Amino acid sequence: MTETLTIGKALNRGLRKAMEDDGKVVLMGEDIGKLGGVFRITDGLQKDFGEARVVDTPLAEAGILGTAVGLAMRGYRPVCEIQFDGFVFPAYNQIVTQVAKIHARSRGKLPMPIVIRIPFGGGIGAVEHHSESPEAYFAHTAGLKVVAVSTPADAYWGIQQAIAAPDPVVFLEPKRRYWEKGEVDTDGTPDPLFGSRVVRGGDDVTVLAYGPMVKTALQAADAAAEEGRSLEVVDLRTLSPLDLDPVYESVRRTGRCVVVHEAPVTLGLGAEIAARVTEHCFHSLEAPVLRVGGYDTPYPPSKMEEDYLPDLDRVLDAVDRSMGF
Amino acid sequence: MTALQQGTTEVVDPVPGAGAPHLPDQPDLVQLLTPEGERVEHPDYRLDISDDELRGLYRDLALVRRWDAEATALQRQGELGIWASLLGQEAAQVGAGRALVDGDMAFPTYREHGVAWTRGVDPLHVMSLFRGVDQGGWDPVARSFNLYTVVIGAQTLHATGYAMGLQRDGAENAALAFLGDGATSQGEVNEAMIWASTFAAPVVFFCQNNQYAISVPIERQSRVPLYQRAAGFGFPGVRVDGNDVLAVLAVTRAALAAAREGSGPTFIEAFTYRMGAHTTSDDPTRYRLAGELEEWKLRDPIARLKAHLSRTGIAGPEFFTAVDAEGDELAARIRKGTVEMPDPAGTEMFDHVFAEQTPELAQQREEFVAYHASFEGEQ
Q1: Which of B143, B191, B233 has the most A C-beta neighbours within 10 Å, making it the best mutation to test the interface with A?
Q2: Rounded to whole angstroms, how far apart are CA atoms A240 and A146?
Q3: CA distances for A138 relative to A17, A85, A127, angstroms
Q4: pLDDT at residue number B22
């Protein structure tokens, strides 16, 4: 059945399906039960699945992840909600030193099928610590897989795939796009969780984005088309592992590549991608790989965030620079 | 004098190794065997124990100490990278370990060799960790003994989560979380106690207060006796003589039984002393006085049980000679097994990062193999 759902509702439906399919799935987080989460992603789930499976936790993020490790050792599949991106750092120790390493250190005896849901990114006019893009920290950490969804269909299927996956998955949700609508075929066959996707074909410049920036990149492609420029847009979808074969194929055709993310450019995902694209497409490149992202500043107060966040114009500016190189 | 200095003088006795703060009058200390080896009763903690079991506990203590001595020697001879000695804490660990029953799960720090012993872990599987061959070679599921956790206190949350799993499974078992006095200052340990309390999780926090977090004395971690902290979290706290294997066994059994029955967590402070260095890399003469160690030697956990067994006739010289001989055999086996332990293949580091290998990592592994193959045939 094909339905029109928001990303937020698609996540809710995907979580419900995962809980129906596997009795070992346990949701944990702050305010996710009675309230249904501050973004209502878990709305109605505690009522239907009970307090043992949808746990309103004490207000302690390290506690959420640390107890999730113990539950996973006992055969459960914890799905942890971090209320906002900026609040993942108290849990950082457990994620990086424990969740990421336990499978390796136990030589596979202790799988860690834990999903860490994080609403990430800015653009909602929030106070500080509510608009961060922490993906590079996790993509840099061996033992974690990191995905960022951008559409309702990926949200619906991706959350189920992440929960079913045997490894820990940091699941980044584009919070400012929670209310964006799209078609979801709940009977269809989903794309693999770990794979990039060309979402718009083009010939002049390859533009890479993920999460909330996919929409921005597509808007830029529309605007560029009016000026006679043809942008190919790739939704990376998975940040660790990266699936760049389709990107290499694209860049070998276009000769130009622009990477877009909200996170600061310095040592962000774009830096790694630029290095790999350069290594694999060196003889095809007509210009250096360019990066569009946040500045090396703390995420600013909301009245400045439009200046901080990449938008259509900054993407087009990078396209211009690439074309003019 | 500045306000800061005034404040500092009020906080603690800053003299390291001053001795007196470590040996307070302890009316609340649970003890069933005095340092002189005299069996005493406690109104809340009875222990019915057979002679065989008493001899078994002695054997555990003596063999674990022999293993520990051999490991320290092997480190000095360059066969181990480092060793964290349990010298002086044998009773706390053996007593706690022997309180566990089938289906209980233990979550050690990196010093719980005595607990490992009680769980049937092959000492060589501990030695391999300290030799740098692996991160601990035992099967944590089969042995119901988690791998060692080095990040201080992180395992207390794992134990609590595991206990929440036991609750959901309707299992009549408990988790036993080990921690040290220093760990009680960690936020995660406090979170674990909050979670355990609010969910009434079947977990027991077993804190070996060995008086020092490397060099920093307990006074820098807490202004109140550690066991009294439990009241603030809403569950019982007990201070037990950690050098009295009988008292530790009785107190831990009672706490685990309460947890299994749904009465929630207990915090046990096993009051003991790290008679050796923090690890073989440490030098305790820099931060504590020799007299303190001499005083604690009079409380030695093994000597007091030996005195009790001898005085009561439960064991005689032949028994002790036989245990010593068994210890020497064990040490020889550990020595041989350690020095003959093969180095792992470099490719092993790639093999268990994920349950589902990523293409990226598979490629790195291939490149690693090819790189090393490129040297084949070279001198």
Answers
A1: B191
A2: 5
A3: 27, 12, 23
A4: 46
Whether A117 and A228 share a structural domain: no
Which among A52, A74, A90 has CB closest to B162?
A74
Examine the domain organization and report whether A33 and A173 are in the same domain: yes
Task: Classify residue B11: in a domain, yes or no.
Answer: no
Q: Which amino acid, one-letter code, is at A68?
A: A
The average confidence (pLDDT) of chain B is: 93
Pair B164, B222 in one domain: yes
The count of structural domains within chain B is 2
pLDDT confidence band for B245 (50 / 70 / 90): very high
Q: Give the residue numbers spanning the domain of B349.
A: 345-379
pLDDT in tens, B348-357: 999 999 999 9
Dihedral, A82, A84, A88, A91 alpha carbons, nearest 10: -40
Q: How far is CA B114 from the centre of its chain?
A: 7
- Answer yes or no: is B79 within a domain: yes
* pTM exceeding 0.90: yes
Asked if A312 reaches chain B (Cβ–Cβ under 8 Å), the answer is: no
Cross-chain Cβ contact A106/B135 below 8 Å: yes
Q: Do residue B277 and residue B159 come from a single domain?
A: yes
- For tokens 């355990």, what's the residue? B196
Unique residue bearing structure tokens 């620079």: A321
C-alpha to C-alpha distance for A224 and A312, rounded to whole angstroms: 10
Per the CB < 8 A criterion, the answer to whether B148 and B108 are in contact is: yes
Could you list the residue range(s) of the whole structural domain that residue A123 is in? 2-185
Round to whole Å and give the CA distance between A249 and A233.
Answer: 13
Q: Which residues of A touch B140 (CB under 8 A)?
A: 73, 106, 109-110
B225 and B368 both lie in a single domain: no
Do residues B301 and B362 share a domain? no
Inter-CA distances, A29 with A55, A249, B366, Å: 6, 41, 40
The three-class DSSP label of residue B147 is coil
Peptide bond into B344 cis (omega under 30): no
B76-134 pLDDT tens trace:
999 999 999 999 999 999 999 999 999 999 999 999 999 999 999 999 999 999 999 99
What pLDDT shows up at residue B2? 40
Would you tell me how many other CB atoms lie within 10 Å of the CB of residue A47?
12
Q: pLDDT tens-digit profile of B126-163?
A: 999 999 999 999 999 999 999 999 999 999 999 999 99
CB contact under 8 A, B135 and A110: no
Q: What 3-state DSSP class applies to A220?
A: helix
**Residue A190 belongs to some domain of the structure:** no
**B247 to chain A, minimum CA–CA distance in Å?**
29
User: Would the CA dihedral through B32, B23, B209, B122 be positive or negative?
Assistant: negative
Domain closes at, from A161, A185, A209: A185
Length of chain B measured in residues: 379
Q: Are residues A18 and A135 in the same domain?
A: yes
CA–CA distance from B353 to each of A107, A108, A111, A237, B361 (Å)?
Answer: 8, 8, 10, 21, 9
Q: Are strands B203-209 and A169-174 parallel, antiparallel or unpaired?
A: unpaired
CB atoms within 10 A of CB B81: 14
What CATH code is carried by the domain that includes residue B317? Answer: 3.40.50.970
How many whole angstroms separate alpha carbon B227 and alpha carbon B237? 5
**Same domain assignment for residues B176 and B279:** yes
B266 and B376 together in one domain = no
Question: For B189, which residue in chain A has the nearest alpha carbon?
Answer: A63
Q: What is the pLDDT of residue B3?
A: 40
